[in-house]
């Protein structure tokens, strides 16, 4: 039946009770009550005499499952696909939570732990489930990032050895890449279901895939909007370039490798008297020598010397003309000691200010005096320091961003950038045209390999090599191949970041960052960036629909894009490579199609176009401040002066238990599916264990993951399950409408209300580890204190005892609340508890969130708990084994809050036979306990009453006789 029970200091709650009177001998504390009054007969007969009179726990829910993955699958559909559809269809659009946006997963990643827990999928699902539980309508659309090198390289691995994208047609590359991506998506979709991720996996619009035509057209229309606003330009500029993958890279696609070895060189650029600036000539004449003069430069990239077009100096630095075995050298005065160690003895003959060196011209092996103008010259740049090198910086605008910007700022940027390096990173024949036939030995050699040896050999032969050093330093590498990159001037498409930088910074002021310090990282990346190279020289991507006329000038405007996009929308983006140029070009002109594709970060950064509103949450790793977080922000500002997200959550990365980054190549990778389903040598823990671990760590930092971490999470889940099972087994159906809530019942309900507030705040602030910590602490306290206090009344009181009904109501309310609080993190366990508890809704998530309020005075209960913990220390002197064998005296100023409560209640809470609120009349073992209410004196003595054979309490007046309570029940 259903009865309305008034919980003290809480709102009215509807509580349904179930009567359970059948035997359940699962716990030793329950079994001890099955004793007998009989003084004769066997021990076994005595134990059975009263077992049928006890109200022992009963539930069909097992304490643990032999095969957790199989049991979880019973609740999978109702808590994932079906739940998502129900909450979308059943709820008013006005309750919409908004949208949570997940970075599109790369299908090539499969299920390495770093991609799925805790930092991505599990955390997303916890956020979404919490909102559904709170009654919101959630729009969660997971996606797959399919374009770019990761998929293309994996697809090429399926072909015969020696096959590369350079030997295949673009359409062939795209076909095999698309097939590879589709296969991987289905695998990952299945894995995410196994992890219990709530989404509309197979329904229309349930997921998005960046290689679908609809998504690609959205992306191209966004690109068109940026073109119309003047944000897109095409020009020759130095860009990061990866010879290993033959494409330009954005800064976000670099990883830096420590310990990279480079052969650095000190080189002399000769200066004739006629090429000297007035200031340098005066300093030279002051030396009173006729020694040849050279500018001393140092570089770690000897391969870039053919591109040298100038030497940068600092206007405020002091330079010297020093005599050496190589003649007179110009170098910074502050670098004299370091240079002496590098090239030998130096003698300063005169000095000159950096500003007085400007105007000096010079020659070098790759720009001899006979070469065409303009000649390389000395110019000023603020980026020059005396921290390393010579104080004179070799500058090649085709091979360095700072060099390019410095030349542009000085107004001396050459009209043609010297860049004799091809797409494979090898020197070209162009070198020979600049210099002499002797440099032909460089042609065809790798600038990162044998070309370095050949270059240094040439420098040694012509006498310009001053010294060579092998250095170890930090060097940028391709993020996928991990091979070194170079900076190379190539014609590329750029998005103007400066145009949106100010509104970008302003929009971030309205974003909540988790953790707060991640704001600084994203803002720093935005501030330091002036442009974004958005073009890539690969086939697997969204084409940049630019046409080029006979002079090589690009045609890219609103009109051309509208026409081309309409064609690609109808025929698919493959048609850019298969269709004739006439399908795209305007009449009366000769054009060719460009071969570049859009940066994959433009792909993922366009995902906001699927939404009708700003997303509530974006969540990804710390590397995405320069990737997806930033690209989404920059592209969104094309449409609106706001960020595309309200909350931006940054997670750390997953390390093994030795603190090393997880990777398959290192042999320390652990797949989520291995944790969930097990392997030949390890058990399957199920998804809830993995999710418990994911929620228990501080995901905003790097976290360790391995067998011991999973074992700990499994133990945490076991304890939660055990506590909930006790609640479930003792929440039975009763036949009375009266219930009385004791002091400890009210304390538990008040603590529960406080826990609900703490958990709600933690979920709202995305602090899921606080949820787990609070829940495990609360249930542990319940198990060790409250459960032990109430077992006697639960098992031995009358079924309709008001005191017992209050306990049952407390247990049922606690179970319902804990089930809801645990549900977003461990949905399978929550659904199992809800089903065994007779829930009427299709899912526990549809029951809503009912947070209680409580103004209960907790002081008496807290005092009793303090005294309860102090009682066991008094037993040993009296040779008593348990508090049940003792009677207890309490007196003193601190006892004030206890005087309004019956001693029978106090004895139940303290676990003793009797409690006397007065000093003992005879000498007893005494102690004092300092409490928040004052000092309480305590004394203990053996119980004066006998042990009841039914309840085992020392409450009987005669041996082998039922106590008054048990006698009345029986």
Description:
InterPro entries: aa-tRNA-synth_Ia, Anticodon_Ile_BEm, Ile-tRNA-ligase, Ile-tRNA_ligase, M/V/L/I-tRNA-synth_anticd-bd, Rossmann-like_a/b/a_fold, tRNAsynth_Ia_anticodon-bd, Val/Leu/Ile-tRNA-synth_edit. Pfam families: Anticodon_1 (PF08264), tRNA-synt_1 (PF00133). The structure is a single chain. The protein is of the alpha/beta class. Among the domains are: 158 residues, HUPs (Rossmann fold), CATH 3.40.50; 218 residues, Valyl/Leucyl/Isoleucyl-tRNA synthetase, editing domain (Isoleucyl-tRNA Synthetase, domain 2, Alpha-Beta Complex), CATH 3.90.740; 111 residues, hypothetical protein PF0899 fold (2-Layer Sandwich), CATH 3.30.2320. It is 35% helix and 19% strand. It contains 31 helices and 35 strands. The protein has a six-stranded mixed beta sheet with strand order 14-12-13-10-9-17, with helices on both faces. Strands 4-3-26-27-19 form a five-stranded parallel beta sheet, with helices on both faces. Strand 1 and strand 2 form a beta hairpin. Helix 23 crosses helix 24 and helix 25 runs parallel beside helix 27. The longest helix has 29 residues. It is elongated, with a radius of gyration of 39 Å. The relative contact order is 0.12.
């Amino acid at each position: 039946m259903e009865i309305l029970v008034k919980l003290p200091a809480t709102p009215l709650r509807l509580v349904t009770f179930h009567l359970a009177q059948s035997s359940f001998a699962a716990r030793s504390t329950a079994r001890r009550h099955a004793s007998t009054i009989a003084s004769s007969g066997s021990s076994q007969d005595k134990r059975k005499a009263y077992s049928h009179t006890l109200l022992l726990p009963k539930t069909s829910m097992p304490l643990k499952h032999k095969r957790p993955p199989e049991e979880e699958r019973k609740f999978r559909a109702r808590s994932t696909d079906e739940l998502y559809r129900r909450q979308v269809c059943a709820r008013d659009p006005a309750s919409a939570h908004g949208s949570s946006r997940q970075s599109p997963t790369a299908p090539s990643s499969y299920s390495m732990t770093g991609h799925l827990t805790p930092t991505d999928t599990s955390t997303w699902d916890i956020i979404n489930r919490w909102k559904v539980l709170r009654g919101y309508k959630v729009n969660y659309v997971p996606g797959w990032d399919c374009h770019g090198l990761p998929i293309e390289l994996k697809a090429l691995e399926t072909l015969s050895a020696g096959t590369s994208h350079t030997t295949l047609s673009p359409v062939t590359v795209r076909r095999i890449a698309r097939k590879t991506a589709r296969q991987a998506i289905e695998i990952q979709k299945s894995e995410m279901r196994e992890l219990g991720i709530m989404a509309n996996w197979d329904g229309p619009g349930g997921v998005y895939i960046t290689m679908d035509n609809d998504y690609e057209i959205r992306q191209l229309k966004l690109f068109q909007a940026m073109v119309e606003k003047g944000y897109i330009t095409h020009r020759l500029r130095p860009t990061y370039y990866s010879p290993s993958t033959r494409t330009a890279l954005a800064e976000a696609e670099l990883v830096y490798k420590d310990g990279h070895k480079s052969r650095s060189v000190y080189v002399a650029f000769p200066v004739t008297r006629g090429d000297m600036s007035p200031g340098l000539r005066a300093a030279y004449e002051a030396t009173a020598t006729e020694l040849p003069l050279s500018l001393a430069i140092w570089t770690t990239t000897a391969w870039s010397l053919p591109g040298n077009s100038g030497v940068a100096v600092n206007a405020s630095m002091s330079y010297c003309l020093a005599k050496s075995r190589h003649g007179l050298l110009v170098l910074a005065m502050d670098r004299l000691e370091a240079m002496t160690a590098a090239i030998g003895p130096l003698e300063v003959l005169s000095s000159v200010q950096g500003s007085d060196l400007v105007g000096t011209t010079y020659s070098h092996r790759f720009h001899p005096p006979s070469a065409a103008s303009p000649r390389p010259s000395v110019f000023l740049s603020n980026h020059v320091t005396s921290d390393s090198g010579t104080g004179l910086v070799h500058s090649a605008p085709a091979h360095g961003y700072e060099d390019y910007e410095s030349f542009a700022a000085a107004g001396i940027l050459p009209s043609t950038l010297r860049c004799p390096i091809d797409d494979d990173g090898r020197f070209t024949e162009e070198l020979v045209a600049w210099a002499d036939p002797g440099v032909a030995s460089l042609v065809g050699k790798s600038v990162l390999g044998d070309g370095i040896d050949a270059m240094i050999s040439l420098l040694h032969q012509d006498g310009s090599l001053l010294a060579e050093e092998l250095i170890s330093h930090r060097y940028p590498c391709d993020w996928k191949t991990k091979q070194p990159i170079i900076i190379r001037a190539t014609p590329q498409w750029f998005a103007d970041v400066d145009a949106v930088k100010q509104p970008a910074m302003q929009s971030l002021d309205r974003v909540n960052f988790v953790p707060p310090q991640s704001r600084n990282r994203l803002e720093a990346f935005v501030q330091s960036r002036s442009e974004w190279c958005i073009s890539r020289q690969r086939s697997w991507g969204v084409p940049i629909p630019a046409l080029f006329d006979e002079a090589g000038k690009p045609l890219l405007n609103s009109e051309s894009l509208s026409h081309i996009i309409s064609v690609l929308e109808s025929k698919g983006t493959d048609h850019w490579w298969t269709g004739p140029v006439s399908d795209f070009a305007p009449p009366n002109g000769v054009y060719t199609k460009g071969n570049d594709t859009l940066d994959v970060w433009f792909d993922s950064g366009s995902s906001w176009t699927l939404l009708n509103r700003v997303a509530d949450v974006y969540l990804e790793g710390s590397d995405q401040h320069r990737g997806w977080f930033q690209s989404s922000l920059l592209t969104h500002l094309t449409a609106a002066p706001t960020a595309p997200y309200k909350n931006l959550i940054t997670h750390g990365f997953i390390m093994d238990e030795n603190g090393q980054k997880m990777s398959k190549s290192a042999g320390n990778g652990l797949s989520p599916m291995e944790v969930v389903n097990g392997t030949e040598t390890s058990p399957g823990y199920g998804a809830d264990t993995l999710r418990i671990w994911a929620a228990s760590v501080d995901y905003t930092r790097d976290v360790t993951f391995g067998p011991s971490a999973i074992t700990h999470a499994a133990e945490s889940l076991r304890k939660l399950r055990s506590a909930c099972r006790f609640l479930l087994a003792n929440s039975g159906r009763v036949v009375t409408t009266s219930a009385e809530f004791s002091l400890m019942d009210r304390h538990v309900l008040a603590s529960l209300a406080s826990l609900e507030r703490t958990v709600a705040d933690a979920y709202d602030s995305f602090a899921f580890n606080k949820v787990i910590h609070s829940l495990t602490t609360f249930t542990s306290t319940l198990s060790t204190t409250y459960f032990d206090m109430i077992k006697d009344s639960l098992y031995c009181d009358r079924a309709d005892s008001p005191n017992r009904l209050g306990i049952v109501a407390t247990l049922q309310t606690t179970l319902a609340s804990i089930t809801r609080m645990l549900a977003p993190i461990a949905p399978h366990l929550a659904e199992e508890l809800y089903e065994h508890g007779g829930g009427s809704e299709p899912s526990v998530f549809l029951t809503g969130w009912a947070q209680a309020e409580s103004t209960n005075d907790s002081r008496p209960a807290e005092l009793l708990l303090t005294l309860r913990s102090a009682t066991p220390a008094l037993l040993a002197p009296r040779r008593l084994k348990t508090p049940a064998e003792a009677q207890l005296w309490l007196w003193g100023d601190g006892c004030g809050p206890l005087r309004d409560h019956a001693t029978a209640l106090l004895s139940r809470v303290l676990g003793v036979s009797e409690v006397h609120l007065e000093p003992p009349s005879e000498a007893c073992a005494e102690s004092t306990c300092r409490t928040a209410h004052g000092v309480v004196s305590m004394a203990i003595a053996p119980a004066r009453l006998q042990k009841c054979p039914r309840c085992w309490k020392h409450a009987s007046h005669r041996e082998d006789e039922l106590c008054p309570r048990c006698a009345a029940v029986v």
